[in-house]
Write a structure and sequence with these properties.
The complex is a heterodimer of chains A (about 375) and B (about 190).
Chain A lengths: L1 H20 L20 E6 L8 E7 L5 E15 L5 E9 L7 E9 L4 E8 L13 E3 L6 E6 L3 E7 L4 E7 L4 E6 L3 E5 L5 E6 L5 E6 L16 E3 L2 E5 L4 E6 L6 E2 L3 E2 L9 E3 L6 E3 L4 E8 L11 E6 L5 E6 L8 E6 L6 E6 L4 E5 L5 E5 L6 E5 L2
Antiparallel strand pairs in A: 1-2, 1-29, 2-3, 3-4, 4-5, 5-6, 7-8, 8-9, 9-10, 11-12, 12-13, 13-14, 15-16, 16-17, 17-18, 17-19, 20-22, 21-22, 22-23, 23-24, 25-26, 26-27, 27-28
Chain B lengths: L2 H16 L2 H12 L58 E3 L16 E2 L4 E7 L4 E11 L8 E3 L27 E11 L3
The chains are: A mainly beta (about 375), B alpha+beta (about 190).
């Protein structure tokens, strides 16, 4: 023992002497890390922070370096959307004057995506729909002239905002139809309980010029659609609880409904279902759909997928079934795919871990367990 | 859909489509003074994320998960367990794990006056009961016993059957704390 102590002391002396011999560390300068140039492999992860819900946040994550690049605060039960040019993140949220309680302020807050610094706000009437995040809690018009914000008090309406002037221009009643699906420079569609789409066209001042109802897209009793539609070529695509694919072309004056097609064969119908908080991702250029699928019955529509199924949008054929068990993500409740030609697939498990997959092969590249407690929605940059 | 569900859903949806905030407040006053027996609209909060997976039986009912809270009795009889029969379409934190009970809000919170009504089957007596799902409001998330069940639950456009929206939305302090399931009566004639 005595010999051991002697050797340890000698070693410490040598290390110490070595340290004295090396150059001292240079002083550091406190600074703000600049964001790197935007990559199609970035993803905005909306963490609803359900277990402490006044503290939702958006994390910016790089699917190549696996680095957390920064954060945007998101308050209580937020909606989050990107501006059409990708320069700005808009967060519609609620704050309480005393943290968990007190006077309610609803607001749309803007963040400069080049710096992640705050870039102004628009205070709303206290009517914002406090719902889980989707593409349609708030939305930009195609030319970014307007922002639309879904209201629910529980009477349904939406606000029209001027992001340049930072003002609220109007409130438009939607007769019980909900959410704001944008199209063109001045049209807003909402989902109605009778399966139709209400489309309101605005005048240049943001007030209602006309409205119309589409034919029925779905049957809310027999097979309702998830409200979490995904952007697709010319519009948005919605899934039904039983796996019907409803593609809607919003490029014209009125929404045009494509004939629905099915994710499941006759023997799978009602047995395998899509589910989760973001049950559909689409790579528009490749025409590929990614859907977390699970075995389950009625009432399982929020259950995550044990597999991700991949479909060709043009042929409607299933290209692959990727079991999620090897990834150890648990059931996959949210998916997003990058829009480049070497796409990444992001998948959130039901315990909050996020997997990064090669979206062409299904190969798992990385799992990140620190992207939030309840990452319910991913947005592309 | 159960006929009573349909009845309540129809009236509450119609209400949501026609009602201004002011008339809603008037109705709220009636409800608070007891002149309206049944709550008006759907309730609640979301928590997705919970459901376990890998159900080996095709078409089997969804699995649920109680994050915390013990299973002291059998799951169907334990108000602190997500499987408790009255919670068949609840989505949020169980108030029974937060200082309240299955039908009472924790001290210092406020009841949501608007709610949605469903029917749940009680395996104890094999009867269907009408339950009102209410949120308890005015404090931040309880965080205990997250529970997500969705029998006959519908998306937001059918508000009277939706448990994703914050049913504290019309409270003066609309922060969401936890959820209860209040038994209103037999669904059978």
């Amino acid at each position: 023992m005595r010999s051991l102590q002697l050797r340890a002391a000698l070693l410490a002396l040598m290390v110490s002497a070595g340290s004295f011999a090396a150059q001292p560390l240079a002083p550091e300068q406190l600074s703000i890390e600049p964001l790197p140039s935007k990559s199609p492999h970035w993803v905005f992860v909306i963490d609803e922070a359900f277990f402490n819900e006044i503290d939702a946040r958006v994390r910016l994550f790089d699917g190549d370096s696996y680095r957390h690049l920064g954060q945007i605060d998101a308050g209580f039960s937020p909606g989050v959307i990107q501006s059409p040019d990708g320069s700005t993140t808009a967060v519609a949220t609620t704050y309480y004057a005393r943290g968990g309680h007190g006077a309610r302020t609803d607001v749309v807050e803007f963040t400069d995506n080049a710096t992640l610094a705050a870039a102004g706000e628009i205070v709303l009437p206290p009517k914002r729909a406090q719902i889980p995040p989707t593409y349609f809690n708030l939305a930009y018009s195609a030319d970014a002239r307007f922002i639309y914000v879904a209201y629910l008090t529980p009477a349904a309406s939406f606000g029209v905002l001027d992001p340049a002037g930072k003002t609220v221009l109007a409130e438009i009643d939607t007769a019980g139809c909900v959410l704001v699906i944008p199209s063109g420079p001045n049209r807003v569609s909402s989902l109605c309980d009778n399966g139709k789409l209400l489309t309101v066209t605005l005048d240049p001042q943001g007030h209602e010029a006309q409205r119309s109802l589409s034919e029925a897209m779905f049957d809310a009793d027999a097979d309702p659609v998830f409200i979490q539609g995904a952007p697709s070529s010319g519009g948005y695509t919605f899934l039904s609880f039983l796996g019907q694919v409803h593609e809607v072309d919003f490029s014209g004056e009125q929404p045009s409904l494509h004939p629905p097609w099915s994710l499941v064969g006759a023997s799978e119908r009602g047995r395998w279902r899509p589910g989760g908080s973001q049950p559909l991702a689409i790579n528009r250029a490749l025409g590929r759909l990614y859907v977390p699928m699970h075995r389950g019955g009625e009432g399982s529509h929020k259950q995550g997928g044990s597999e991700i199924w991949v479909f060709d949008r043009n042929t409607h054929k299933r290209l692959a079934r990727w079991p999620m068990a090897p990834s150890r993500l648990g059931a996959v409740t949210a998916v997003q795919v990058s829009q480049d030609d070497a796409p990444l697939l992001f998948a959130a498990g039901d315990h909050g871990a996020v997997g990064v997959f090669d979206a062409l092969t299904g190969r798992l590249r990385h799992v990140d367990k620190d992207l939030g407690q309840t990452p319910w929605l991913f947005l592309n940059p | 859909m159960h006929p009573l569900d349909r009845l309540f859903e129809k009236s509450s949806r119609s209400l949501a489509q026609r009602t201004s905030r002011r008339s809603f407040v008037a109705l709220l006053g009636q409800a608070l003074t007891g002149s309206i027996l049944l709550p008006l609209l759907p309730i609640d909060r979301v928590s997705r994320a919970q459901a376990a997976n890998a159900d080996p039986d095709a078409g089997a009912p969804p699995q649920h998960q109680s994050i915390s809270g013990g299973a002291r009795n059998s799951a169907h009889d334990d108000p602190q367990n997500c499987e408790y029969w009255k919670y068949c379409a609840i989505d949020g934190f169980l108030c029974s794990c937060c200082g309240g009970s299955s039908h009472s809000c924790p001290p210092g919170t406020a009841m949501s006056p608007i709610t949605w009504i469903g029917t749940c089957h009680n395996p104890g007596d094999s009867r269907d009961y009408i339950v009102s799902y209410n949120d308890c409001c005015g404090k931040t998330s309880c965080g205990n016993c997250a529970c997500n069940r969705n029998e006959r639950e519908k998306p937001l456009y059918r508000l009277s059957r939706n448990n994703d929206v914050n049913w504290c939305m019309a409270n003066s302090d609309s922060n969401y704390h936890c959820s209860v399931s209040v038994l209103l009566g037999l669904a059978e004639q």
